[in-house]
Amino acid sequence: MKGLNFFFFLFFLLLNLHTGDTAGSCGDPGIPSHGSREQTDFRIRSKVFFSCTEGYEMIGSAERMCFPNGTWSGMQPFCKPIQCGNPGTPSNGRVFRLDGTTFSHSVIYSCMDGYLLSGASTRLCLANGTWSGIQPNCTTVTCATPPAVSNGVLQGSDFEWGSSVSYSCSPGYELSFPAVLTCVANGKSTSPIVFVFFTAKFCGDPGTPAGGSREGRSFIYQSEVTFSCSPPFLLVGAATRLCQSDGSWSGTQPRCIGNRFEVEIMVITFHKDKRGNVAIYSLSFFFFFKSTNSMQGDKYNLLAG
Description:
Pfam family, one: Sushi
Largest sheet: 3 strands, antiparallel
GO cellular component, one term: membrane
Number of strands: 23
CATH topology of the largest domain: Complement Module, domain 1
Protein name: Sushi domain-containing protein
Main location: membrane
Strand order of the largest sheet: 1-2-4
Shape: rod-shaped
Keywords: Disulfide bond, Glycoprotein, Membrane, Repeat, Signal, Sushi
Order of helices and strands: HEEEEEEEEEEEEEEEEEEEEEEE
Structural class: mainly beta
Number of helices: 1
Distance between the termini: 182 Å
Number of domains: 5
């Protein structure tokens, strides 16, 4: 009889060891990753409570009780990251980088060529399952209207990305270099306006007539020069010349000539043909200028019948 009692004692002892109730407890139920547990009493009918850290949600039983058979009620809990879902893509934009759609992960946006990002370029997945901020927009790049430039005229009125405008000159002026401005992706023009300038047309040195003088040292558009002759010379040609918009001087080139001269017909030559008829004669004119004591002349051949 004593042997039978000892057998039952061993049976119940092994049963209690198998269920974990060696001292009326259920054993340690563990702590989920990214979570925490309240209570450290694992005895029969004791309860433990679980929770997850911010950004995680619990899957399983948040509360468990130790049964008399040495097991815990419910399911072993674990903490799962909060899911924010697809953050979306703005029109005319793209997702530049996405490292995940769960808590603490981020998305970075960028825009297609010709568009500028309006709003935050980065959004974070928050603990409440939403993305931070609002989705940004991609707006068409538009450059500022180029400023008016002295002595120049703006050609073109389209200032959006990829468009070009240029400057032309007012009459009498020319560009220092080709001025074509193109609106680029950053919303600025390709050529700084400060370097766009216009220079007046240059007519060149009009010269000074021999025996005379000139007043005026500027030879650019709308400049005026005047000429005069020293006595006793007389001015022949334009006394005043103006630099014109096409880069030429108005009027004719002036010269100074003597005011007294004598004309002499030095040679009169007659020629006869084989029949004895007068065919050709020539005249030589010589002009003697007393003021300069010089002579100038020309010879003219004339046909007579």
